[in-house]
Design goal:
Structural class: mainly beta
Largest sheet: 4 strands, antiparallel
Radius of gyration: 82 Å
CATH topology of the domain at 551-684: Gamma Fibrinogen, Chain A, domain 1
CATH architecture of the domain at 551-684: Alpha-Beta Complex
Number of strands: 62
Length: 692
């Protein structure tokens, strides 16, 4: 019988002529008797397989000798499959060992009852025993339970057994030095397990969720991890993800509860379907993840698709690059048709880069940069027209070789200014202006003319003068009188010749008898005589005044101004408007009543200083006549200190604004206006008004 190396478990004792035999096959241990001879026992080591030569160490025993064999058999699974090649043989040995143990147990029971058996402890107990025990020898408890020698009444237990009677069961392999033997059972150290503590233990004893095999947990279906503490994921995520709390977190590119399905990038961006890990994009999208807009017909493989639009290769064009392109895309000056440029009007050339000329200038000129340079006798954008003299001087259009001038020009070459409507054939056009025939007028001679062209004092309307407000007559040659003299006189050269009972510039005032004889003012038909005069027509001298000219009052004026320094104040008024002139010096001399006046202030202006130093004159007395100078008193119808002739004329004709004959104060209202109210007052220069 052959065993693998290190086998233990069989002990036998031989005495006398007995022969121990090992017979392969049934595993039965047989005792035989025969002639007294040596017993031969072969102790094998190593692994001996069936059919091989027997190897080992041979021992010889003397007759009558005793041999005790103790075999320790440790049967462990091989560390690697196929190691040693004894798997099948080992299985059979295990079966035979189990049968052998049963036979030994039956034999022990038989020996215990004394039914003819030899015991190693009793030596001669039993009818069949040849060796009789020493009557004086001490017996050992329980015969050492056949697990030791009885020496002097004490058991010397075989290896692996203990106790007074060697009855204590040994632990398998002495717990392999990885635990303690307690009542024949190994209590393994942490990290080890098995009946003999020879197996590596599993962490947490697999948490009762699996089996410990060779120190590793074989977890139940729903658990995983080194200690089976984690919940497992379906099919362990098929190696395409991580299991987190029983759910698969799939690696990129995979999806599903067990990560068995291939996923598509970005889930195709909701623009297509995911089939076997690849996106089947909707028609308008493309790309591995359907993120890009697709181009028509995929640009026909003649360009690149950029954001849904084809960037065609140089020789192709069109939305889908299906058309052949033209040079420089015809420079945006034409259409590309089958690779050839059909240029827009005004352009030509293979790429429409050149400007063309209309009708190619009709072969009547040269085309330069898109414009026709026509031959001399032709013109127009296409040289189709005959040219005109001097190109009509840019004042008209050349039509079929003749100038059609702009409205304001005329002549064969439009060099002359034209007249409106060519003067309507009623005059001549000279430098753009009509010189009308005598009976016509107007800018275009379309109107009938008026006599003397209304003397530039009105408008000519259909041959009749519409005079300006201050003129009248068929030719506006006559001055118009104010209010047409109120029908109280005749208008002569713009001035009213009033009827006897009326006066004034427009004959609106009633006249006074004899015009107040030039010695007073006519107020509503009555004379307001000046000082020294009286009567309805102011023809008489006033009381206290004598003399043929009623001028003896000037003597009084002399007396007043020579006795003390006097000042003069002149008050003027027209309606609500008033002004005054104040003179600090005023004196009338005795001889010819020479005037001395100076020191003006006031609001009417200084019209009196002009007369200072002059003699008083009247129409019938002029003390200083000058043959070459107008007799002022006659011309201006008053008595005054005339010079040549006056700036002030406060003794003139009342209400008469013509010929400077009225009551005049030039610096206030001018010489053509007769002031209706005047006053001359004097007082001593030293006069101080009383305090109010």
């Amino acid at each position: 019988m052959w065993f693998c190396r290190g086998a233990t478990g069989l002990r036998s004792s031989f005495s006398g002529p007995e022969l121990l035999m090992f017979q392969r096959g049934g595993g039965a241990l047989q005792h035989g008797t025969g002639p007294e001879q040596l017993a031969a026992v072969v102790v094998s080591e190593g692994c001996v397989t069936s059919g091989s030569q027997q190897e080992g160490k041979e021992l010889e025993l003397q007759p009558g000798g005793s041999l005790v064999l103790t075999h320790r058999i440790s049967l462990r699974p091989p560390s690697r499959p196929g190691a040693c090649g004894c798997q099948e043989e080992l299985g059979r040995v295990l079966g035979r060992l189990e049968g052998l143990e049963r036979e030994v147990s039956a034999l022990r029971a038989s020996c215990t009852t004394g039914a003819g058996c030899c015991s190693s402890s009793t030596e001669s107990k039993g009818a069949g025993c040849l060796v009789q025990p020493d009557p004086g020898a001490r017996l050992c408890p329980g015969g050492c339970s056949d697990q030791g020698h009885c020496v002097g009444g004490a058991c010397e237990c075989f290896h692996g057994y203990s106790g007074p009677d060697c009855s204590r069961t040994p632990c398998p392999a002495d717990c392999s030095d990885h635990g303690r033997c307690v009542d024949g059972v190994c209590e393994c150290d942490p990290g080890y397990t098995g009946p003999d503590c020879s197996l590596d233990g599993c962490p947490g004893n697999c948490n009762n969720r699996g089996r410990c095999v060779n120190g590793k947990c074989v977890c139940g279906p729903e658990f995983t991890g080194p200690d089976c503490s984690e919940r497992s994921c379906p099919d362990n995520c098929r190696g395409h993800g991580q299991c987190v709390e029983g759910q698969c977190v799939c690696d990129p590119g995979f999806k599903g509860t067990d990560c068995s399905e291939k996923s598509c990038p970005s889930n195709c961006n909701a623009r297509g379907r995911c089939l076997n890990g690849k996106c089947v994009c909707n028609p308008e999208f493309t790309g591995p993840d359907c993120s890009k807009k697709s181009c028509p017909s995929n640009c026909n493989k003649r360009g690149r698709c950029l954001n849904g639009k084809c960037a065609c290769n140089p020789e192709f064009t069109g939305p889908d690059c299906s058309e052949r392109s033209c040079p420089d895309n015809c420079n945006d000056r034409g259409r590309c048709v089958k690779g050839d440029c059909v240029c827009d009007p005004g352009f030509k050339g293979p790429d429409c880069s050149e400007k063309s000329c209309p009708s190619n200038c009709n072969a009547r000129g040269r085309c330069i940069n898109g414009q026709c340079l026509c031959d001399t006798e032709f013109t127009g954008s296409d040289c189709s027209e005959k040219s005109c003299p001097d190109n009509c001087n840019k004042r008209g259009q050349c039509v079929n070789g003749k100038c059609v001038c702009d409205p304001e020009f005329t002549g064969p070459d439009c060099s002359q200014k034209s007249c409106p409507r060519n003067c309507n054939a009623r005059g001549r056009c000279i430098d753009g202006q009509c010189l009308c025939d005598p009976e016509f007028t107007g800018t275009d001679c379309s109107e009938e003319s008026c006599p003397n062209n209304c003397n530039d004092r009105g408008r000519c309307v259909q041959g009749q003068c519409v005079c300006d407000p201050e003129f009248t007559g068929s030719d506006c040659s006559e001055k118009l009188c104010p209010d047409n003299c109120n029908k109280r006189g005749q208008c002569v050269n713009g001035k009213c010749v009033c009827d006897p009972e009326f006066t004034g510039p427009d004959c609106s005032q009633k006249s006074c008898p004899a015009g107040c004889s030039g010695r007073g003012r006519c107020v509503e038909g009555r004379c307001v005589c000046r000082r020294a005069f009286s009567g309805p027509d102011c023809g008489r001298c006033a009381d206290g005044v004598t003399g043929p000219r009623c001028d003896q009052g000037l003597d009084n004026l002399h007396l007043l101004t020579s006795g003390a320094a006097m000042s003069l104040r002149v008050d003027l008024r027209v309606g609500e408007e008033a002004a005054y002139a104040l003179y600090s010096t005023f004196q009338v001399a005795k001889r010819n009543y020479r005037l001395s006046v100076a020191g003006y202030s006031g609001t009417a202006g200084d019209s009196m200083s002009y007369h200072s130093g002059r003699l008083f004159s009247t129409r019938d007395r002029d003390p200083d006549p000058a043959p070459s100078i107008t007799r002022c008193a006659v011309s201006y119808r008053g008595g005054w200190w005339y010079r040549n002739c006056h700036e002030a004329n406060l003794n003139g004709l009342y209400g008469n604004g013509e010929r400077h004959q009225g009551l005049i104060w030039t610096t206030w209202k001018g010489k053509d206006f007769s002031v209706p109210f005047t006053e001359m007052k004097m007082r001593p220069s030293a006069f101080i008004p009383p305090a109010r």
